[in-house]
């Protein structure tokens, strides 16, 4: 990754009409409906943006959308990238760097995840307080990283405390149950074994997924305040483990999605 590549990506989007967005949003698996609520949308498909990776997962749309939401300029990633698609961590997080160069001052992230904490149920939503990186690498581990920020990025409070507190207040006012917990990110795409779920519980994880952590690391590298929500789509009980059903996961994500949209819309109003 070079400054020249980033500049070309950004220039293409500015020419399309992406005009100084204030907030960036990353939409996870089965969580694309927020994009439909954007006013005066301008779309840019990933395969048209210079140096952008391509979304290869069938339920990820693969486009950036710019427009107005709750009176604020937003840029929304409808579809994200994962290590399991064959990309490296620099590719996976490239869009975060592009959105920051476009002008965003806050980043909201969503994902679909499995509940390891058995007090949480499928259909619940969880505010991520902290994370564990089990993806075996870092999106900051490349030669010229120092050109883009501090190589040794502090991660003592990776998820913005002020925005987290606002989300908890919004959830209370809207009568939405918002869990709080630790998210662990693994490579995938295979789901975990019973032994792996037991290990992740011992490590202190409340939910497991295959995304988000690289994007959060890069947001911190860029001094970009970030907040993240997991929609819990399955229960990872190693003593009663059921075979995974991707169609059911997408269905549960869609059922819980309105709660996530309410939280993000209200937060956009309040930041």
UniProtKB/TrEMBL annotation:
The question of whether Secreted is a record keyword is answered with no
Which CDD domains does the record match to this protein?
Answer: PNP-EcPNPII_like
Q: What's the Enzyme Commission number for this chain? A: 2.4.2.1
What is the top EC class of this enzyme, as a single word?
Answer: transferase
Q: In which pathway does it act?
A: Purine metabolism; purine nucleoside salvage
Q: Which GO terms describe its molecular function?
A: purine-nucleoside phosphorylase activity
Task: Give a yes or no for keyword Nucleotidyltransferase in this entry.
Answer: no
List keywords of the entry alphabetically: Glycosyltransferase, Transferase
Q: Which InterPro entries match?
A: Nucleoside_phosphorylase_d (IPR000845), Nucleoside_phosphorylase_sf (IPR035994), Pur_Nuc_Pase_Ino/Guo-sp (IPR011270), Purine_phosphorylase (IPR011268)
Report the Pfam families cross-referenced here. Answer: PNP_UDP_1
Q: Which residues form the Nucleoside phosphorylase domain?
A: 23-269
Q: Which domain of life is it from?
A: Bacteria
Q: Which Gene3D superfamilies match?
A: Nucleoside phosphorylase domain
Q: What protein family does this chain belong to? A: Belongs to the PNP/MTAP phosphorylase family.
- Give the matching NCBIfam families: PNPH (TIGR01700), PNPH-PUNA-XAPA (TIGR01697), PRK08202.1 (NF006054)
According to its UniProt entry, the function of this protein is described as: The purine nucleoside phosphorylases catalyze the phosphorolytic breakdown of the N-glycosidic bond in the beta-(deoxy)ribonucleoside molecules, with the formation of the corresponding free purine bases and pentose-1-phosphate.
Protein's name according to its UniProt entry = Purine nucleoside phosphorylase
Which organism is the protein's source? Arenibacter antarcticus
């Amino acid at each position: 990754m070079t400054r020249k590549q980033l500049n070309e990506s950004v220039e293409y989007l500015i020419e399309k009409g992406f005009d100084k967005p204030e907030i960036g949003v990353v939409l996870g698996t089965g969580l694309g409906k927020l994009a439909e609520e954007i006013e005066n949308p301008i779309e840019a498909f990933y395969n048209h943006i210079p140096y952008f990776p391509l979304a290869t997962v069938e339920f990820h749309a693969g486009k950036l959308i710019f427009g107005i939401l709750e009176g604020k300029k937003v840029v929304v990633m409808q579809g994200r990238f994962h290590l399991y698609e064959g990309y490296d961590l620099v590719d996976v997080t490239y869009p975060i760097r592009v959105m920051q160069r476009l002008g965003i001052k806050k980043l909201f992230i969503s994902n679909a995840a499995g509940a390891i904490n058995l007090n949480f149920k499928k259909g619940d939503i969880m505010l991520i307080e902290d994370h564990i990186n089990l993806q075996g690498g870092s999106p900051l581990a490349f030669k010229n990283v120092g050109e883009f920020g501090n190589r040794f990025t502090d991660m003592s409070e990776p998820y913005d405390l002020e925005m987290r507190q606002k989300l908890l207040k919004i959830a209370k006012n809207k009568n939405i149950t918002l869990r709080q917990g630790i998210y662990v990110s693994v490579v995938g795409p295979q789901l975990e074994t019973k032994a792996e779920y037991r290990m992740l519980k011992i490590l202190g994880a409340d939910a497991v997924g295959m995304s988000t952590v690289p994007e959060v690391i890069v947001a911190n590298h860029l001094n970009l305040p970030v907040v993240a929500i997991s929609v819990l789509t399955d229960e990872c009980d190693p003593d009663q483990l059921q075979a995974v059903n991707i169609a059911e996961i997408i269905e549960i994500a869609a059922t819980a999605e309105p709660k996530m949209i309410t939280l993000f819309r209200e937060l956009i109003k309040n930041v």
